[in-house]
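stage 2 :: seqdesign
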């Protein structure tokens, strides 16, 4: 059986940096060549980054991507890398007569096979995801051809991400074409539970196609999305042969014994999704390669559930900071758990030297809030300052006649103004500390504690905030380090400290109950009656639904933050702000 040494390049492209991404492909192809790989695969839309959103609609951007893929092939040959096959994702232009979806004249999400200084084959994604965070009917037209490349005697089909998730289509064509290997290139964002779902899916598809499937995914953050890598190869019988570490850039190299290509089938096949696809073939006369020592392979250990989420938050935060060219961040440190965890994530992402924390005590701040903030800053080594706000709040109050909530929120707004002023002055990115439970219920002050540029906990429910804080401390203890978060930050009842003795539970149900209802209403779109039928108190359910529905306007003005659940606020959940829909069973609320 022919041997093929395959390298999966799990790398971190930057959206829009076509020149930089091209250099990344050259660098990683050199690594792959130094390990004697015959074929190296890069992620979906490697040259442009992913997702490019409306950049896909700019003809100049499409043209730059098309030029880059040709330049890349030539450059690889000039660098002496012409013998290695390279599969790389890029943005291409479709012929004008491409049928819907997603529309005539739209570009394609494509894969190119490069070898010998040329682009020898191109494949366009057939199944376009158009749900959740994906809008691909808006951006791409659909491919209708499967291209099979015979390389070193093996018939290799290229597919792209969603192609694996839908029945029928290119994998059915690959089965009909009798391929020896499917290489699927991906831009598959992280969410909890998804890595194993991908592996199971690939195992099922490998059995259907009767060939091994090689799956390469990108790593890194892009605005709200975090890509976790987790690239792998499964054999035709579903056995995992290699699995790369989660969230780390790197190369997974494996020697595969593959069925030789014998079929010559071309022409059009019914691919069982209501369409027909054309099978095209490219026969490369690649010379056989000299002997080489076997590649060490292995299955990287999986991260524990909390470690995986935490790694996603650190990766998303680090890449947002780095890719937007910030060198430092600023966090308002209250002594509470949210700002404590955000600071810890920031320190893990970019190092304590680049993390500035500021405590801003007001008249109602407790002594322990200042002490706990200081202790956290000391343990983690952040650059910490204290700016009391009482005089500033008093100055406002001398000129404005404010009472009740308006007076309380003023403190949060003075803090927001200080944070943004320090950001302007020193160039720090302000990290917003709110969590998903607060965002769901509107429990934050607009232009106050919701100010800032990036919100690491935006998709993290409060109960998970505590779990992650406990996990991070335990992890430090296991390695003999000082736990980064003072225990009192974890143990104290949450309070905004905007008036004497205030507790979150004055305004919100206890967080375990709140988060359980939010999970059903926000993440599963459950109806009011279904949530009540699941055993929740009808009055509490009505209250929570009202809070969530009335806070849409706040969410629209909130900074981005890394997605870790199946349904984040942002691209995953889009609701009208002006909205009089009332869930059945609730009392209609006034206004
Ligand atoms: N549909 C709509 N479209 C656009 N804007 C709309 C709007 N409805 C109200 N508004 C505006 O929003 C304003 C009300 O929002 P906002 O000013 O934020 O004030 P509001 O939501 O009334 O109060 C903030 C709440 O968050 C709590 N909080 C504050 C700070 C920190 C924490 C914490 O623990 O982390 C909690 C605080 O105790 C209070 O319960 C209105 O005055 C109006 O200007
Ligand atoms: N005294 C303070 N000094 C500095 N920042 C503060 C202070 N109080 C509030 N903040 C900022 O405003 C955010 C809102 O926090 P607040 O204390 O009102 O509620 P919280 O949800 O309990 O957050 P945390 O758990 O971080 O305290 C804090 O996370 C912090 O960034
Ligand atoms: N880029 C894509 O096509 C991604 C869609 C796919 N269902 C995933 O999340 O993995």
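stage 2 :: out
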């Amino acid at each position: 059986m022919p041997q093929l040494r395959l390298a999966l390049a799990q790398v971190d492209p930057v959206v829009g940096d076509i020149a930089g991404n091209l250099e990344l492909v050259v660098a990683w192809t050199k690594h792959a060549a130094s390990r004697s790989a015959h074929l190296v695969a890069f992620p979906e839309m490697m040259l442009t980054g992913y997702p490019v959103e409306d950049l896909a609609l700019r003809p100049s951007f499409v043209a730059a991507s098309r030029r880059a893929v040709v330049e890349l092939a030539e450059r690889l040959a000039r660098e002496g890398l012409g013998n290695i096959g390279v599969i790389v994702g890029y943005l291409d232009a479709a012929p004008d007569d491409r049928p819907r979806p997603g529309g005539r004249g739209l570009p394609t999400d494509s894969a190119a096979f490069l070898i010998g200084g040329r682009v020898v084959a191109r494949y366009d994604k057939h199944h376009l995801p158009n749900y959740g965070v994906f809008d691909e009917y808006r951006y791409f037209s659909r491919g209708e051809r499967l291209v099979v490349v015979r390389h070193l005697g093996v018939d290799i089909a290229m597919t792209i991400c969603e192609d694996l998730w839908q029945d029928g289509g290119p994998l059915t064509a690959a089965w009909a074409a009798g391929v020896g290997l499917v290489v699927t290139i991906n831009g598959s964002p992280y969410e909890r539970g998804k890595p194993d779902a991908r592996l199971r899916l690939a195992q099922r598809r490998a059995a259907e196609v009767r060939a091994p499937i090689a799956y390469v995914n990108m790593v890194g953050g892009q605005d709200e999305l975090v890509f976790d890598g987790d690239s792998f190869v499964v054999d035709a019988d579903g056995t995992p042969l290699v699995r790369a570490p989660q969230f780390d850039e790197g190369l997974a190299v494996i020697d595969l014994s593959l069925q030789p290509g014998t079929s010559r089938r071309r022409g059009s096949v019914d691919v069982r999704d209501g369409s027909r696809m054309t099978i095209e073939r490219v026969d490369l006369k690649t010379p056989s390669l000299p002997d080489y020592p076997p590649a060490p392979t292995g299955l990287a250990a999986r991260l524990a559930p909390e470690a995986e989420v935490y790694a996603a938050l650190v990766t998303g935060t680090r890449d947002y900071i780095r890719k937007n060219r910030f060198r430092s961040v600023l966090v308002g440190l209250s002594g509470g758990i949210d700002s404590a965890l955000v600071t810890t994530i920031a320190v893990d992402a970019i190092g304590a030297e680049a993390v500035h924390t500021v405590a801003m005590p007001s008249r109602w701040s407790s002594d322990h809030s200042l002490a706990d903030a200081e202790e956290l800053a000391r343990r983690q080594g952040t650059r910490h300052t204290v700016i009391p706000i009482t005089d500033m709040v008093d100055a406002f109050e001398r000129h404005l006649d404010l009472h009740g909530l308006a007076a309380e929120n003023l403190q949060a707004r003075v803090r927001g103004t200080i944070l943004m002023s320090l950001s302007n002055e020193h160039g720090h990115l302000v990290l917003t500390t709110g969590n998903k439970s607060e965002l769901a219920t509107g429990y934050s002050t607009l232009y106050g504690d919701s100010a800032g540029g990036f919100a690491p906990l935006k998709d993290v429910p409060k109960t998970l905030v505590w779990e992650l804080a406990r996990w991070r401390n335990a992890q430090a203890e296991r390695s003999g380090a000082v736990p980064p978060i003072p225990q009192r930050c974890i143990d104290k009842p949450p309070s905004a400290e905007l008036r004497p003795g205030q507790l979150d539970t004055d305004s919100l149900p206890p967080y375990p109950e709140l988060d359980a209802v939010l999970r059903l209403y926000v993440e599963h779109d459950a109806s009011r009656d279904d949530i009540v039928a699941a055993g929740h108190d009808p009055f509490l359910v009505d209250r929570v639904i009202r809070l969530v529905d009335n806070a849409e306007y706040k969410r629209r003005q909130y900074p981005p933050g890394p997605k870790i659940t199946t349904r984040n606020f942002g691209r995953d959940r889009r609701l009208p702000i002006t909205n009089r829909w009332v869930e059945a069973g609730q009392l209609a609320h006034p206004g």
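stage 3 :: structure notes
- The chain has a mean pLDDT of 95.
- The longest helix spans residues 404-426.
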